[in-house]
Amino acid sequence: MASSEQHNHAHVIAQALPYMQRYDGRTVVVKYGGHAMGDADLGRAFARDITLMRQSGVHPVVVHGGGPQIGKMLTRLGIVSEFKEGLRVTDKATVEIVEMVLAGSINKEIVQAINAEGGRAVGLCGKDGNMVTAEKLRRTIVDPDSNIESVLDLGFVGEPADVNPTVLKLVLKEDLIPVIAPVAPGPDGETYNINADTFAGAIAGSLNAKRLLFLTDVPGVLDKEGNLIKQLTVAKARELIANGTISGGMIPKVETCIEALDQGVEGVVILDGKVAHAVLLELFTDHGVGTLIRP
Ligand SMILES: Nc1ncnc2c1ncn2[C@@H]1O[C@H](COP(=O)(O)OP(=O)(O)O)[C@@H](O)[C@H]1O
Ligand SMILES: CC(=O)N[C@@H](CCC(=O)OP(=O)(O)O)C(=O)O
């Protein structure tokens, strides 16, 4: 006779059916942040989740970051790096390392991990098939003390100006799993470093994705006391950015969530990538984890 533990297993699998039906044939973009990487067991669990998604009829698209890993390589090479408004100031030497780490080692590591679980992943970056064309990021900032406006110059930091999903659609049609690094060419042949959250949002919008998940190293958006905010409206998210509760790397994440909702992505969630099988918990169970951002 089956044990109660076996019954529980069966129950969990059965519970997943309506969710699998909901996402059947739909695209789910998963942004895998650099802070969620690093632990071998968690990396395998992530690769297994992505493979299981594909096996159950979902079309996962992985967009990855690698901020801490870029930082480590820059330190090894003696290149000093700083962040402004959550974005890395990127000169010519830095962008070379960014491309090497993101489109090189990290991208291939994720592809290999998914393939080791029996998935069929293909590594790409914005350059492949002219998927993403970047333009230099232009952002005006206002000094809170003097109220003086200035333009933030971050060097080779770009934002997606145009997304052509043709190559992605081909890859998805062949039941392959695209794994994309956020590096893209500019109009004059230069290479731009794009924040991975922003990049993931642009990809999700162009594919009309059903869901966009951000895997990071915190349980979601936290309030001033450090408690998880389970649901956040766009208006409240803007307020939390303005009053400084949301800062650093969480700013581009939340801004991207807002834009993705605008572009028709149905659900956007920020969740803890340090929890094993976070993606499965979020997609296929009643236990939605993390912060859901809604219009
Ligand atoms: N209100 C907030 N709630 C949660 N995290 C926040 C908040 N404000 C700032 N953060 C910071 O944002 C970080 C996540 O962004 P980031 O470091 O860019 O991660 P990733 O590599 O996953 O993109 C958290 O580790 C935390 O330090
Ligand atoms: C412009 C900019 O800041 N680019 C990021 C790209 C990687 C990234 O976004 O990685 P995470 O998702 O791990 O933060 C960087 O250079 O770190």
UniProtKB/TrEMBL annotation:
It is an enzyme of class 2 (transferase). Gene3D superfamilies: Acetylglutamate kinase-like (3.40.1160.10). Its main location: cytoplasm. It comes from the Bacteria. Its EC number is 2.7.2.8. Residues 27-271 form the Aspartate/glutamate/uridylate kinase domain. Pathway: Amino-acid biosynthesis; L-arginine biosynthesis; N(2)-acetyl-L-ornithine from L-glutamate: step 2/4. Transmembrane segments: none annotated. InterPro entries: AceGlu_kinase-like_sf, AcgluKinase_fam, ArgB, Asp/Glu/Uridylate_kinase, Glu/AcGlu_kinase, NAGK-C. It catalyses: N-acetyl-L-glutamate + ATP = N-acetyl-L-glutamyl 5-phosphate + ADP. Substrate binds at G66, G67, R88, N193. The record marks K31, K253 as: Transition state stabilizer. GO terms for molecular function: acetylglutamate kinase activity. Keywords: Amino-acid biosynthesis, Arginine biosynthesis, ATP-binding, Cytoplasm, Kinase, Nucleotide-binding, Transferase. It is found in: Cytoplasm. PANTHER family: N-ACETYLGLUTAMATE SYNTHASE, N-ACETYLGLUTAMATE SYNTHASE, MITOCHONDRIAL. Catalyzes the ATP-dependent phosphorylation of N-acetyl-L-glutamate. NCBIfam families: argB (TIGR00761). Belongs to the acetylglutamate kinase family. ArgB subfamily. This is Acetylglutamate kinase. It comes from Roseibium algae. The lineage of its organism: Bacteria, Pseudomonadati, Pseudomonadota, Alphaproteobacteria, Hyphomicrobiales.
